[in-house]
């Protein structure tokens, strides 16, 4: 994986993680589950 591509991948993981934390803090379980699934898919790709 090229460095810029890897950096974009890492930034996307950080973004999804922050959104997940926000959803959990505010009790939005449906959004939290959607974000967990997005993180799973993203991490399984690499």
What does the secondary structure layout of this molecule look like, with pairings?
Blueprint: H1 3-25, H2 29-45
Helix pairs in contact: 1-2
Summarize the model shown.
The chain contains two helices and no strands. It is mainly α.
Q: What does this protein structure show overall?
A:
The structure is a single chain. This protein is mostly helical. The chain is elongated. Helix content is 87%, strand content 0%.
Question: What attributes characterize this protein structure?
Answer:
46 residues, mainly alpha, elongated
Report Rg: 12 Å
Summarize the amount of helix as a percent range: over 70%
Low-confidence stretches: none
Strand coverage percent: under 5%
Alpha-carbon distance between the termini?
A: 9 Å
Total beta strands: 0
Structural classification: mainly alpha
Q: Figure out the total of helices.
A: 2
**Judging from the principal axes of the Cα atoms, what is the shape?**
elongated
Major sheet description: none
Mean pLDDT: 93
User: What string gives the helices and strands in order?
Assistant: HH
